[in-house]
Amino acid sequence: MCSAYSASRFSIAPMLDWTDRHCRYFLRQLSRHTLLYTEMVTTGAIIHGKGDYLAYNEEEHPVALQLGGSDPAALAQCAKLAEQRGYDEVNLNVGCPSDRVQNGRFGACLMGEAQLVADCVKAMRDVVSIPVTVKTRIGIDDQDSYEFLCDFVQTVSQQGGCDMFIIHARKAWLSGLSPKENREIPPLDYPRVWQLKRDFPHLTMSINGGVKTLAEAKQHLEHMDGVMVGREAYQNPGLLASVDREIFGDTAGSPSPADVVRAMYPYIERELSQGAYLGHITRHMLGLFQSVPGARQWRRYLSENAHKPGADIQVLETALSKVARVD
């Protein structure tokens, strides 16, 4: 298993309602080295919720848990549980701009409370030995000067002991824009993030936001320690098939899309036997054959049939038959 720090050279962003354990297991079939992040999980859900919000599959490593919260004691309790469960990293969400998150006093609004973020990180670092990292923006609302960003990083790194940051290269508007609009409307400012790394060379920094190709990722890696990709990797997961070779220098062969589908069969059969629905797993696989003849038929067949009662591996085999032979 590679360490979370080496794996952070290329990672998949935490995406609410998307990067669940089924998604992460699927993405792991495409890349052995990419660091995978959970959806954001609130401290309240972990401490008071009835479900197991820390569940994951051993095959997902390296895998990081993203926490949402602002109470140092609760975050420390959850970080300790995460380490006991075997997570490779704990990440604090200081980037999500949704109203629901703000009402809970976590996410991007915490950029305005650097000392509190430092206290949260320190509380977690005091009780775990795995990396504690922060994912943030380049600013919030009218607090978007470079000086503001530097002050935030300096406070959180010096007072909290955080030595690894993931920087989304857009600022967040805390009111007036939806989370979706906050991913698209505030302009990307890659040079600002590159400058931040130059000004804090002793810190490990990854860049996030708008990266769509491995060529773009490589350009960022000339300036940064790591690159985090979000929606492009979800909508076009085949992108990951070349990551081990292109980004990590692994000379092992890349899996074909059909190989990846069939590699999922034992996992799917196990999950179905435990009461899971096929559609909950295959919804993450719809974009696998992007640009391959028959990709639309693959998506349509899965979308129309995976949710039906009793749907099983045969649905995937039939869907595969509609795609041009690529293995």
TrEMBL record:
Q: Which Pfam families match?
A: Dus (PF01207)
In the UniProt record, the signal sequence range is none
Among the GO molecular function terms of this UniProt record, one is: tRNA-dihydrouridine20a synthase activity
- Marked site: Interacts with tRNA: N93, K180, R183, R296, R299
Keywords, A to Z, come to:
Flavoprotein, FMN, NADP, Nucleotide-binding, Oxidoreductase, RNA-binding, tRNA processing, tRNA-binding
The source's domain of life comes to Bacteria
Q: What is its EC number?
A: 1.3.1.91
Q: Which residues form the DUS-like FMN-binding domain?
A: 12-321
Binding positions for FMN per the UniProt entry = P14, M15, L16, Q66, K135, H168, N208, G209, G210, G230, R231
**Which sites are catalytic?**
C96 (proton donor)
Q: What does the UniProt record say this protein does?
A: Catalyzes the synthesis of 5,6-dihydrouridine (D), a modified base found in the D-loop of most tRNAs, via the reduction of the C5-C6 double bond in target uridines. Specifically modifies U20 and U20a in tRNAs.
What family name appears in the similarity comment?
Answer: Belongs to the dus family. Belongs to the Dus family. DusA subfamily.
HAMAP family according to UniProt: DusA_subfam
User: What is this protein identified as?
Assistant: tRNA-dihydrouridine(20/20a) synthase
What's the encoding gene here?
dusA
